[in-house]
Specification:
single chain; 0% strand; 63% helix; 23 helices; 415 residues; mainly alpha; Butyryl-CoA Dehydrogenase, subunit A, domain 3
Length: 415
């Protein structure tokens, strides 16, 4: 009896595992074969799901007509406007998702419906992005998979498929330069060049399923998620009220949005700088900007001076590690001052700068002392070499004298 039960269980397991959809499509060519080949790397197949879970039908039937019978729920190709709801059958089911990924959110569909993409799709615009446009179709991977199209290093390419398409973007009166602008930004450099996966990508600022372009009133809040101190200083600055009244976002006015380049102290210049876009030379605001820029440049200069002398001392073999620490602390104060700049309070910036100047001066003095030590060592080395040379000459003369004294009696005997 037991062998019969075992055979039946094995037969049932084989029937359950059978997927005639894959078997058939793998034997075809071109576009009909591609989904089956791609599905080999799909996370859903890895978790035990098959073609019928999305497309319906009977994956155990050997007859194609029976396998693709509407009577057995066969849906075939999914219409674009139906894709979010289809994916949500599982991804909005807390019980099901908890079984496979307890940390997975189950409100993606609700979020998507609030997004620009979701609203336009609901209005009948099928050009907008749906789940498959971002996550792929038959070869969907985990978000953390480096080959996933929504992996931080790949997401800009994914978004660019639409947002770099000039003809498509023209229908929505949008620029198509955002992806390229982003690739020139400090955020992309941190992500791509330094490998910092926490650096902002498209989804960091715009959201993912609930993708919504930040409005003017919310840009600062978006930037403030990472740049907390800058936001706090700016909110207390005179610019905050002025920009709010004009309906402007301070972050974008000074730094841009997608093409956020590395900020420098030159931004405070009236001529060729950011401040010059709004303020004219000779005005009180221009004077404040100039004073702040001068403070920053002074500390930068003192740090460079200290750095140069410490490098010279270290090259000479003098220990300057403690002075290096002072210089690092001076740099920290310079960074703090550059954050405090967002308050546009000269005295607040000066406080950070003065602390940094003290540390830079200490580092410089340590460098001076180190070079004096180098000179003392060199002088001592010269004296040592002279003493050694004198000793060697003395020894040589003594040996020569001894040799001459030894040779003299021998010569006398011969005479």
């Amino acid at each position: 009896m037991r062998p019969i039960i075992a055979v039946l269980l094995l037969a049932a397991a084989a029937a359950w595992a059978q997927d005639t959809c894959l078997e058939c499509h793998e034997a075809l060519e071109g576009d009909l074969q591609a989904p089956a080949k791609a599905f080999a790397d799909d996370i859903h197949r890895e978790r035990g799901f098959g073609c019928a879970d999305c497309h319906g039908g009977d994956p155990t039937a050997m007859d194609p007509e029976e396998a693709m019978s509407p009577a057995k729920g066969f849906r075939g190709a999914i219409r674009r406007r139906r894709i979010p709801e289809l994916c949500a059958r599982c991804h909005s089911n807390p019980g099901l998702m908890h079984r496979y990924d307890p940390q997975q959110r189950v409100d993606q569909l609700a979020q998507y419906r609030t997004s620009v993409h979701g609203k336009r799709l609901a209005a009948g615009d099928e050009n907008v992005a749906t789940c498959v446009d971002c996550h792929s179709v038959h070869d969907i991977r985990k978000v953390k998979d480096p080959l996933s199209p929504v992996y931080p290093l790949r997401i800009v390419v994914t978004c660019a498929r639409c947002h770099a398409d000039e003809k498509l973007m023209a229908k929505y009166n949008l620029w198509a330069t955002q992806p390229e602008d982003y690739k020139a930004s400090v955020h992309w450099k941190a992500l791509a060049e330094r490998g910092d996966l926490s650096a902002p990508s498209c989804a960091s600022c715009h959201g993912n399923h609930g993708a919504t372009p930040p409005q003017v009133s919310s840009v600062a809040a978006v930037c403030g998620l990472c740049h907390v101190l800058q936001e706090q200083f700016f909110d207390k600055s005179p610019h905050y009220e002025a920009f709010t009244e004009l309906g402007l976002s301070g972050c974008v006015v000074c730094h841009g949005n997608h093409r956020i380049e590395h900020p420098t102290d030159k931004m405070l210049s009236i001529e060729g700088g950011v401040c010059g876009k709004c303020h004219e030379a000779g005005t009180p605001a221009a004077e404040i900007a100039g004073r702040i820029q001068g403070l920053l440049q002074r500390l930068s200069g003192e740090m460079e001076r200290a750095r140069a002398i410490l490098d010279e001392a270290r090259t000479a073999g003098i220990e300057v590690s403690e002075a290096e620490i002072q210089l690092v602390q001076a740099r920290d104060n310079l960074l703090k001052a550059r954050v405090t700049v967002h308050s546009f309070d000269v005295e607040a910036v000066r406080k950070d700068i003065d602390e940094g100047l003290k540390m830079a001066a200490t580092a410089y003095e340590a460098g001076v002392d180190a070079l004096k030590e180098r000179d003392r060592r060199r002088l001592g080395l010269v004296f040592s070499l002279v003493a050694i040379a004198v000793t060697i000459i003395g020894l040589w003369l003594a040996i020569r004298s001894r040799e001459q004294q030894t040779a003299a009696p021998t010569d006398a005997g011969r005479g």
